[in-house]
Backbone:
């Protein structure tokens, strides 16, 4: 009794603190606001959601049963099914779901001001992302760790399975292209960044050789060696920057760098995993966890002020980084961090095969996503502690604000975000860069934000080091996602091609490996190439495409979960997945509608294509623009078709789910629940 | 059935920060499980001794990174397939990497 009274008081205090922090953030106008309020609001929201909403879902809706043996226990084979301590599973799961997405999306969405992104990250995560991850993890666990595609096929029918598979392949291609673009934009004309990123490749190979041949399987030793070398590479990049003759080797515009990234992607996909992918993944995981912890400590210690207003005028759709109004584009731009369909692939892949008890699902599914959402909150803090003028100068593409520095600052200052050429030059000099203008993509502005937070916490003299450390840190795990994504895309493609001609499906037959890797790399390489030659910055095109496809994948996962809830006679509680599903259908469909039909050339793909075609026909374009115009026109039309395809897939599976639910409620036959039968756990603590 | 030594030890270490050791609030008191009491006791015992704590952390780091994967494999192998020869360290490492990277392991 005494305990529960204390608990009530503690939770009331958490609720009050959280509401005060949220209220302060939401209602504050005109003054700078301390970043600590964001951290407080976020932590209180996650704590309450986890303690009450997640527990309620676990015990009242899903009926999680700690006495039931998990697949890891029943099928324990010491290889992929292994009962594992929940904190270890949590670590693996978090490392798998947290990539560059929650860092890039919130940074781009900061063009609307700090408030829309922050609220969507918090609300979207609690009611959308966390629920999706937890429910998918639960249903996959009850089905021996079956994948999302398999569950869609079993529970809804063949259409669902095919939709899930094709969407996954397409989203992978768009994702890799946009991430490649982020890296290219961070490296262009920056010998320091380029040489550091280039150095990560031989370093990873060295670590790979160490772990394979010198000291087999000594993962920690190899990683420690790699991390030290990476830090030396950051310092070495600074040295190269100041060596005439050497620096020119690494000083390139975007296009050649894009070709290098494409060639690298192909090489990485066909090399053995132990040589490049696996060792670099170890390094990127440590870097990622270390940097996130460091960033959190620095924010709490330094308590930087947020300088971006709560809202900017760009909620009307005229934003320089990407075109489109607050609704629906803030919800599309921030996918990872609020709700990300990709997580459903992880939650229905490795993780369910490691769970030693069903009661861990709440912590790993819901808690893992809450932590990723917190990373997104820190990204939004890092972006909004910059002067808004500086933020826009770094992120606005040359096609929008002009190529010359003087034009760009005049334009940005005219929006009410004062910035001067001298200020930008000083900042570039502090960061050890020639220029910071037009580095669209989120990575450089995030790096400047992180460098200024770290710099004020650990000494201003190291700003350039911190900046290039942040660039290296982002590049290293973007490249890991690029390798891993290309490889998975290759496996999926081989699986499909195997249906046409059996030898093509053999994952170790070299001609098939070369062909399928080539197709996947060519597919994302195409979008990367177009993104680089597009004067408006390919981010404007690619990021919304990625956000929409990622959330359509989330909608597919929620369709599967909703179908299972209805078929398990839980109609009363079906809103836990149906509500976020309805919201995702609304935002993805309306964003797709705008991307296809909007007459604004910065939003509508077809309008942009027609506009460029008209200009080309009338001879209004400069010779260099006229040369690339046909490719850009074709690409805009292709994007319109692609987005239409995504939305058709979504509606197809939504109707399929509704059909199955309606048939079930009318008592007609439907595919039966594929849940495996109950078996009592024999593990201790049950 | 469990992964052995770290199953218990890391659990004890980390249950100090585990939410389930928080007192239970009335509204959701009727949850299906309640391991709070025993865990809090275990956590209190381990927190006073710094050395075991460090060794738990070290073991958790090794298990999380996969540094001790081969040792766990050998232990498992001895109990499960005592009649067959286990893989050598290098082959096991290569097998494990191939296995890991043939599925979706990294996200956005």
Residues:
């Amino acid at each position: 009794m005494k305990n529960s009274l204390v608990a009530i008081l503690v939770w009331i205090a958490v609720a009050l603190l959280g509401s005060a922090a949220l209220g302060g953030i939401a209602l504050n106008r005109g003054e700078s606001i301390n970043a600590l309020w964001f951290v407080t609001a976020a932590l209180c929201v996650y704590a309450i959601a986890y303690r009450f909403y997640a527990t309620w879902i676990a015990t009242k809706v899903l009926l999680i049963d700690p006495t039931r043996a998990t697949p890891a226990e029943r099928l324990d084979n010491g290889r992929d099914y292994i009962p594992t301590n929940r904190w270890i599973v949590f670590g693996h799961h978090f490392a798998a779901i947290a990539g560059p997405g929650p860092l890039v999306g919130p940074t781009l969405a900061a063009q609307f001001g700090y408030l829309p992104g922050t609220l969507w990250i918090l609300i979207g995560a609690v009611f959308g992302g966390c629920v999706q991850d937890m429910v998918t993890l639960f249903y996959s666990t009850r089905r021996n760790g079956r994948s999302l595609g398999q569950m869609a096929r079993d529970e809804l029918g063949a259409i669902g399975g095919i939709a899930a598979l094709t969407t996954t392949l397409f989203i992978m291609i768009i994702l890799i292209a946009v991430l490649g673009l982020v890296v290219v934009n961070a490296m262009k004309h920056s010998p320091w960044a380029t040489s550091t990123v280039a150095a990560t490749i031989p370093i990873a190979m060295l670590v790979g050789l160490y772990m394979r041949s010198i000291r087999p399987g000594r993962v920690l030793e190899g990683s420690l060696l790699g991390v030290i070398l990476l830090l030396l590479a950051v310092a070495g990049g600074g040295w190269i920057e100041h060596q005439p003759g050497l620096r020119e080797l690494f000083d390139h515009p975007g296009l050649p760098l894009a070709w290098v990234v494409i060639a690298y992607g192909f090489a990485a996909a066909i090399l053995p995993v132990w040589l490049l992918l696996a060792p670099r993944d170890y390094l990127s995981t440590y870097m990622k966890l270390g940097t996130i912890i460091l960033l959190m400590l620095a924010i709490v210690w330094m308590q930087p002020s947020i300088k971006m207003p709560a809202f900017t005028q760009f909620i009307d759709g005229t934003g320089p980084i990407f075109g489109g109004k607050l609704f629906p584009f803030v919800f599309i731009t921030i996918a990872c961090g609020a709700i990300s369909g990709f997580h459903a692939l992880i939650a229905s892949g490795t993780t369910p095969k490691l769970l030693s008890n069903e009661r861990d699902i709440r912590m790993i599914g819901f808690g893992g996503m809450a932590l990723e959402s917190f990373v997104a909150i820190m990204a939004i803090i890092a972006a909004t502690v910059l002067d808004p003028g500086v933020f826009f100068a770094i992120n606005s593409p040359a096609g929008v604000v002009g190529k010359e520095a003087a034009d760009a600052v005049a334009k940005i200052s005219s929006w009410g975000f004062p910035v001067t050429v001298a200020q930008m030059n000083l900042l570039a000099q502090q960061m050890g860069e020639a220029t910071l203008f037009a580095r669209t993509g989120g990575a450089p502005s995030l790096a400047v934000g992180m460098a200024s937070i770290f710099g004020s916490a650990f000494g201003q003299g190291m700003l350039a080091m911190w900046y290039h450390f942040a660039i290296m840190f982002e590049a290293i795990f973007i490249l890991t996602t690029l390798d891993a994504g290309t490889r998975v895309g290759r496996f999926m493609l081989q699986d499909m091609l195997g249906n046409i001609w059996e030898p093509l499906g053999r994952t170790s037959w070299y001609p098939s490996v070369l062909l399928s890797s080539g197709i996947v790399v060519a597919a994302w390489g195409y979008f990367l190439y177009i993104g680089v030659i597009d004067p408006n910055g390919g981010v404007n095109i690619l990021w919304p495409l990625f956000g929409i496809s990622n959330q359509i994948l989330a909608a597919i996962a929620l369709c599967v979960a909703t179908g299972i809830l209805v078929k398990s006679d839980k109609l009363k509680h079906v809103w836990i997945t149906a509500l976020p599903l309805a919201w995702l259908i609304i935002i993805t469909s309306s964003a797709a509608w705008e991307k296809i039909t909007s007459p604004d050339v910065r939003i509508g793909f077809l309008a942009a294509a027609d506009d460029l075609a008209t200009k080309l026909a009338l001879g209004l374009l400069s010779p260099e623009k006229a040369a690339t115009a046909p490719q850009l026109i074709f690409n805009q039309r292709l994007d319109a078709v692609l987005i239409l395809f995504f939305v058709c897939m979504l509606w197809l599976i939504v109707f399929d789910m509704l059909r199955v639910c309606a048939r079930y409620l009318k008592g007609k036959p439907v595919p039966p629940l594929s849940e495996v039968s109950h078996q009592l756990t024999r593990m201790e603590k049950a | 059935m469990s992964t052995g030594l770290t199953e218990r030890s890391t659990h004890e270490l980390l249950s100090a920060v585990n939410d389930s050791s928080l007192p239970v609030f009335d509204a959701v008191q009727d949850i299906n499980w309640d391991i709070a009491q025993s865990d809090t006791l275990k956590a209190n015992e381990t927190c006073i001794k710094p050395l075991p704590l460090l060794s738990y952390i070290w073991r958790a780091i090794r298990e999380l990174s996969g540094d001790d994967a081969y040792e766990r494999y050998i232990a498992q192998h001895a109990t499960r397939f005592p009649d067959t020869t286990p893989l050598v360290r290098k082959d096991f490492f290569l097998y494990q990497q191939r296995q890991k990277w043939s599925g979706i392991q990294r996200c956005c």
The radius of gyration of chain A is 25 Å. Chain A touches chain B through 81 residues (CB under 8 Å).
